[in-house]
UniProtKB/TrEMBL annotation:
Name of the protein in its database record: Amidohydrolase-related domain-containing protein
SUPFAM superfamilies reported for this sequence: Composite domain of metallo-dependent hydrolases, Metallo-dependent hydrolases
Organism superkingdom: Eukaryota
GO MF annotations, alphabetized: hydrolase activity, acting on carbon-nitrogen (but not peptide) bonds
Signal peptide region: 1-23
Coiled coil ranges: none
UniProt keywords, alphabetically: Signal
Organism of this sequence: Cryomyces minteri
Keyword presence, Iron-sulfur: no
Amidohydrolase-related domain residues: 92-394
InterPro entries, per the entry: Amidohydro-rel (IPR006680), Metal-dep_hydrolase_composite (IPR011059), Metal_Hydrolase (IPR032466), Metallo-dep_Hydrolase (IPR051781)
């Protein structure tokens, strides 16, 4: 089944009484013709940002100078021959934000992410042709996007019945699993995504699927928004579990299995809260939040992902691009993360777990992906939304037209984590 316009999507979703919402699977996408994206080049000028408090990916430090040169962070001693000096008046500089679960869909959406300081995005389902997905990676000055391309799914589950998947995404047994994974390897997928639902794949096929992906050196991302799919994903030995159960929280034996198998959690609480708000499928928010609380307390790595699509699905389903990642940080803190761990969840931790060694940290030699904010995010996580300046690969943006405040964010000594 093909969707040629947005209206088609609406009709299907409404007709299926939000089954899609229930499973929060991928969204159909349509390639659109629009104006060609703006081309940027790496600036050759050297910029020094002075009097800035750096969250280096681990902790917030005392005021210092950060130098940007050739799209990278330079040594602060290079400040003396800077072409441009910016006084940040004690503002806070964050590494460019990394969204660990997004459905980019369009260059316009990539631009919206950029305007909220997101310089890297882990796309968890792009139903365009792989070359059209790749084209969403515009280049210098745009977010860098990694792709699973379209996810694997059982043809017998609720998601596939909506017609949102192409038949070559269907996995039924070990041989169709191998064919699917071989295709994603050829497409250069960064990781393998699978929809876990009941009814869905039988456990033996799921296990074979994950073993095949690992044999091809690919990590497996499981979409598991309910309690039972979490167990099936753990049994199959997936690497990352995305979403958080809206029916029944994870229990202690599941938590221990996450730890033992070193599974990473990407709870996408903003999506779970949004789905619970639709009132569909008996989904409620507290189990999703409580699952994060248990996983975090036990020491399971938690990454910030929004599951943003930017699509408004009536009556009230919308996870907007960009801002939703900041809302996710607020929800993670509400679920018990310290503000420092919420900041790590959107910078250094995803860089570590997705294998992106050139970002997530502010230090010489790393990509100059930077977000200058007003306010102290250690005291108040919501201040990540007070964006004054953004640099992506050294290209500067000022999407909110804010002038750098001359008012220091606070007088206190809050450098420690
Ligand atoms: C696997 O499933 C495919 C498609 O459903 C089918 O054609 C094939 O015969 C099955 N292979 C085995 C070994 O069962
Ligand atoms: C996958 O990557 C290889 C090596 O970089 C490249 O030669 C090939 O063209 C890529 N395939 C696709 C489909 O982009
Ligand atoms: C946790 O949940 C799983 C899956 O529902 C179940 O098999 C297991 O017995 C539960 N463990 C505890 C300690 O409740
Ligand atoms: C919601 O819960 C009710 C009562 O337990 C049940 O009858 C109904 O089937 C559930 N609906 C869905 C969509 O799970
Ligand atoms: C936290 O920051 C937000 C965004 O600047 C602001 O609206 C809110 O009032 C602050 N909360 C507190 C308790 O200061
Ligand atoms: C910022 O300024 C530009 C140029 O004047 C304008 O096009 C844009 O709409 C402004 N953006 C906001 C968020 O005010």
């Amino acid at each position: 089944m093909h969707f040629i316009n947005f209206g088609g999507l609406m009709a299907v979703l409404v007709a299926t009484q939000f089954l899609f919402v229930h499973s929060c699977g991928p969204v159909p996408m349509v390639k659109r013709q629009g104006p060609a994206p703006t081309k940027y080049t790496t600036p050759q000028t050297k910029v020094a940002i002075r009097n800035v408090r750096v969250f280096d990916g681990r902790r917030l430090n005392r005021p210092a100078t950060v130098v940007i040169e050739n799209g990278l962070i330079g040594h602060s001693k290079h400040e003396r021959d800077a072409d441009q000096v910016i006084d940040a008046y004690g503002g806070v500089l964050l590494p460019g934000l990394i969204d660990s679960h997004v459905h980019t869909g369009s260059v316009a959406n990539a631009e919206t992410m950029r305007n909220y300081g997101i310089s890297s995005a882990m796309d968890m389902g792009c139903t365009l042709a792989p070359s059209d997905c790749d084209a969403l990676n515009v280049g210098v000055g745009y977010p860098q996007i990694k792709f699973s391309y379209d996810g694997a799914v059982s043809p017998f589950g609720a998601s596939a019945k909506l017609g949102l998947f192409k038949p070559n995404s269907f996995v039924t047994n070990a041989s169709t699993a191998a064919a699917y994974i071989a295709r994603q390897v050829t497409n250069n997928a960064s990781y393998i995504k699978i929809i876990t639902e009941s009814p869905g794949l039988d456990q033996a096929t799921f296990n074979a699927f994950v073993a095949d992906a690992h044999g091809n050196n690919k990590k497996v991302m499981s979409h598991a928004p309910r309690h039972d799919p979490v167990s099936e994903s753990l049994t199959a030995q997936v690497d990352f579990i995305h979403h958080s159960p809206t029916d029944k929280p994870v229990n202690e034996s599941q938590v221990q299995q996450y730890l033992k198998q070193k599974v990473i959690a990407v709870p996408t609480l903003i999506q779970m809260l949004t789905i619970a708000g639709t009132g569909f499928g008996n989904s409620t928010y507290p189990p999703a939040r409580d699952s994060v609380t248990s996983l975090y307390r036990a020491g399971v790595p938690i990454l910030a992902g929004s599951d943003a699509t930017g699509l408004h699905i009536p009556p009230n389903l919308l996870v907007p691009m960009g801002i939703s990642l900041h809302q996710e940080l607020e929800l993670l803190v509400e679920a018990g993360l310290t503000t420092v761990d919420a900041l790590r969840a959107v910078t250094s931790l995803p860089a570590l777990h997705f294998g992106l060694p050139d970002r997530g940290v502010i230090a010489p030699g790393y990509r100059a992906d930077l977000v200058l904010i007003r306010g102290n995010p250690i005291l108040n996580i919501s201040t990540t939304q007070e964006i004054e300046r953004i640099w992506i690969g050294g290209v500067e943006f000022n999407p909110f037209n804010r002038t750098i405040s001359t008012v220091p964010c606070d007088g206190g000594d809050n450098e420690e984590d």
